[in-house]
Amino acid sequence: MSTIVSLPDQSTAALPKRNYLNAEHGLLSWLLTGDHKRIAMLYLISITGFFFLGGAFAGLVRLELLTPAGDLLAADTYNKMFTMHGIVMVFLFLVPSVPATLGNFLIPIMIGAKDLAFPKINLLSWYLYLVGGTFTLTALVLGGVDTGWTFTTPLSTHYLNTHVITTGLAIFVAGFSSIFTGLNFIVTIHRMRAPGMTWFRMPLFVWSNYAASILMVLGTPVLAIAIVLVVLERTIGLGVFDPAKGGDPLLFQHLFWFYSHPAVYIMILPGMGVISEVIANFSRKRVFGYTAVAFSSVAIAVFGFFVWAHHMFIMGVSNYSALVFSLLTMLVAVPSAIKIFNWSATLYKGSITFETPMLYAFGFIGLFTIGGLTGVFLGSLGMDIHLTETYFIVAHFHFVMVGGMLMAFLAGIHFWWPKMTGRMYPESLSKLAAVTTFIGFILTFFPQFILGYLGMPRRYHAYPADYQVLNVLSTAGATVLGVGYLLPILYLAWSLKYGEIAGPNPWQATGLEWQLQSPPVTENFTEIPYVDYEAYDFEWLAHKQKQEVTTVG
Amino acid sequence: MGISPVLWQFLNKWLTSSALFPKEASTIAPYADALYFFLLMMTLVGVVIVGLLVFGFSIRYRKERNPEATQIEGSTLLEATWTIIPLVIFLVAFVWGALLYFRIYNPPANSMNIYIVGKQWMWKAEHPGGQHEINTLHVPTGRPVQLTMISQDVFHSYSIPEFRVKREVIPGRYSTVWFNATEPGVYHLFCTQYCGTLHSGMIGTVTALSPDDYQKWTEASNSGMSLAQNGERLFASLGCNQCHTGQAGARGPNLAGLYGTRVQMEDGSTQLANEAFLRDTILNPSSHVPAGYKPIMPTYQGQISEEGLIDLVEYLKSLKTNYRVQQTLTTATSTEAAPTTPGMVKP
Q1: Lesser CB count within 10 Å: N end or C end of chain A?
Q2: Contact between chains at A450 and B22 (C-beta distance less than 8 A)
């Protein structure tokens, strides 16, 4: 197999003497840093921790479901496990995953800036994330919470005696972390682009993070309000959601999904950005229909705000409002289809190689296509009645969030690992991990579609015996999937010390970040670049490399 | 080489009961499955097209075969194609789904009504004839059955996969769903909305019986009192009959024949007297004051259980004349003849 990787001569190569990693030493230099790259690394470490915590909860859930009887965990414990799995994975892993790590690291460099607009607010948002994480862990240590990540009232306000308030505050605080990140990105992208970096020369990764930032800034406050109202209802008996006091329990779901549906796009859009970068680079071509892909991100962000009630089709909302929300849901599916076709068309007449990031990107395309199309099942009103609240839903959003987003995250981590650390990851081992993840994923979640159509409800601690075969398959798949996720953490840690020296541009990529040393210096650019080429302009790159050779020669 | 007996048993059980699709046991089920197959085909075609593109291009344009990439800007025509074709398919899914939705949530006028009360963690069913069931539901085949459902505590959801119907059961509000069972049999009944600790224990069975068997079942499990009869007792014991006498000049409006009519309200609006209206006027009388009456009715919030409310609602639905109301009143008062005030003129 041919490859585009070109590394410097390993016998003489060394990491750059001065870079952001060794610019300052000591723990405090990290904890008080304003450098967006260091903050990105802080985020990377913390979200990885929470990912494995959330994964452990998922493991226990799957293990319990190996048998129909509720025999491994007590019903309460099981409920706490799936609740904590949801809360940790959604609020502490998926929402910050790509934006706060890769986005934080790359957006300033990609647009030719020395840092984000507000470096101290950037650090603050990491601390808020940590406070949110600590509150969640506190709730866990004190005995957990069993509301489900959706906090449905009146269950969460009147009927449960677990640590709803602590968890609610955790989500409230973590929400501000995400608002600040979004705000920082929006201001940076508007105000700090290097000369010549027009909107349509920006890499698509920046576009998709921009769209996600708008959602974060506009959507998250609504969630914060909803959660605060739940906390106030529990503490001082405010009755906004209490029918006995003239409140409406369904109002909570409107508020919650007004954020939590756009949140799905907050999670997936940055991942789509990663896929655009990876596909373009490993086919050595500019992304097919750049503007269509860029605007489809914005279209998803806009439409994404008007589909929330599709989570409530069976809740007794009026039939006619259900009709409107179903129609809008169909419309929001279109931009995603556009992206998939544009990525496929990017491969046409490319010169394709299959390094690990590309394998993850292919995994993304396959799984996201299934995840997206099964969303149409659920947006179709009559079908939703049978499928909602079953394992079909579980399978659908795991295909999008795990099959889509997590694949994209891993594609991005592998792609930019040499830039972030200056060293390559081991290629064959990582390919094995990518394939293992893909197989494990399909085996885990595909049977759940069938289970859902058969009618198995989600969040069930015990289930009728006729569903066991599919559950056994799913649990077996989860084991494989677990191995697929453990491998990267091991070899990436190994590569920090033993990986090959990557050099500035191991992928022969065109982005501004690849024209810098790896890892970059703290201020990114010693002089602000002038951008006179479009994103993914491989001819520009070839020309530049030829010139360098001539100059040196 | 033999397959493990445990695994064999699993596979056998799975394949013989319901391998990929639950049984079609209601008139709705074939319609739902038809839409499902359409959507499955859509997914299959979509995945195959994307798969062919990705794998085809990956093989044809891999670096070994195509060392130099050709730069292409894009194509407006292609963009339009893959915007419009998916849009049209999704719109078909929308229209088809909407038709099915209206079919499932608009009950036929002649359906028989059964009340369902959900509470942590059991389902109670109240048949019009007074039969009570917990975590089971007996219904006749070949006849539309409407469920009028309410929750006593948190959100629940009543799901019968073999019938392809499901609806949220909401605290303090009636919601309805209907089905027409086609095949006698015993089917799954699930609560699908997470409702606390024993959520997964809130399951049961729906038994569809042939009309004859259903007749036998109703007779065998008769409790002696229909819902309306229970309601009549409550009506008297709660003192409703003191004001709602049905006589001219009574403090409360005449309730006979009220169900199904539109009521003129004090604030000028009109409200439809359906089950939800009847239930709510008992609990929140001050928000339903009919034109010409004073807001003097006390609330019965916290004094009647959901089952009691169902009894009262059924009673009011069946109330066609006030003859029996007045009978109970006269028997109550005849033993203690009240002294007439001298000089009083009756209106």
Answers
A1: C
A2: no
| Signed CA dihedral, A514, A119, A267, A160: sign only | positive
Q: Which residue has tokens 């860029």?
A: A294
Record the pTM.
0.91
Name which of A151, A380, A543 to mutate to probe chain B: the one with the most chain B Cβ atoms within 10 A of its Cβ: A380
Task: Output the six-digit token pair for A179.
Answer: 């608002």
pLDDT in tens, A131-188: 999 999 999 999 999 999 999 988 998 898 889 999 999 999 999 999 999 999 999 9
SS3 of A126, please?
helix
When computed from its CA atoms, the radius of gyration of chain A, rounded to whole angstroms, is: 23
Peptide bond into A343 cis (omega under 30): no
How close, in Å, is residue A96 to chain B by CA atoms? 27
> pLDDT tens digits for B107-152?
998 899 999 999 999 999 999 888 889 999 999 999 999 999 999 9
For the domain made up of A35-552, the CATH class stated in words is mainly alpha
Provide DSSP, A276-317. Answer: HHHHHHHHTSPPTTHHHHHHHHHHHHHHGGG-GGGG-TTTT-
Distance, CA of A130 to CA of A177 (rounded, Å): 9
pLDDT classification of B10: cutoffs 50, 70, 90: low
- Residue for token digits 């798969």? B51
CA distance A148 to A81: 9
* Cβ <8 Å between B105 and A319: yes
Give me the count of residues in chain B. Answer: 347
Q: Which is it for strands B136-140 and B204-209: parallel, antiparallel or unpaired?
A: parallel
Contact A401, A94 (CB under 8 A): yes
Nearest to B194 among A152, A286, A323 (CB): A152
State how beta strands B156-160 and B270-272 pair: unpaired
Cα separation, A252 vs A256, whole angstroms: 6
Q: A154, A434, A236, A375: which is closest to B119 by C-alpha?
A: A154
Closest CA to A287 of A334, A360, A338, A213: A338
Place of tokens 């049999």: B185
Residue of A388, A348, A267 whose CA lies nearest to B168: A388
Query: Contacts from A238-245 at CB under 8 Å and sequence distance 24+?
Result: A241/A153, A241/A154, A241/A157, A242/A153, A242/A154, A242/A157, A242/A158, A243/A154, A243/B171, A243/B172, A243/B173, A244/B172, A244/B301
Q: What is the pLDDT of residues B236-290, one digit of tens each?
A: 888 888 888 888 778 888 888 888 889 888 888 888 888 889 998 898 888 888 8
Query: What stretch of H or E contains B178?
Result: strand B175-180
- Nearest-angstrom CA–CA distance, A525 and A207: 22
Alpha-carbon gap, residue A76 to A197, rounded angstroms: 55
Residue B324's CB is within 10 A of a number of other CB atoms, namely: 15
Report CB contact under 8 Å: B301, A244: yes
Would you call A374 and B86 a contact, using CB atoms and an 8 Å cutoff? no
Q: What is the pLDDT of residue B334?
A: 46
Mapping DSSP to helix (H, G, I), strand (E, B) and coil, where does residue A21 land?
A: coil
Question: Cα–Cα distance between B84 and B139 in angstroms, integer?
Answer: 46
Residue found under tokens 């201001």: A187
ipTM: 0.93
Report how far apart, in Å, the C-alpha atoms of B91 and of each of A147, A314, A379, A517 are: 36, 20, 11, 50
Structural domains of chain B, ranges and CATH numbers in brackets: 21-105 (1.10.287.90), 112-220 (2.60.40.420), 227-332 (1.10.760.10)
List phi, psi (to 5°) of B134.
Answer: -125, 125
How many CB pairs below 8 Å do chains A and B form together?
300
Whether A463 and A455 have beta carbons less than 8 Å apart is answered as no
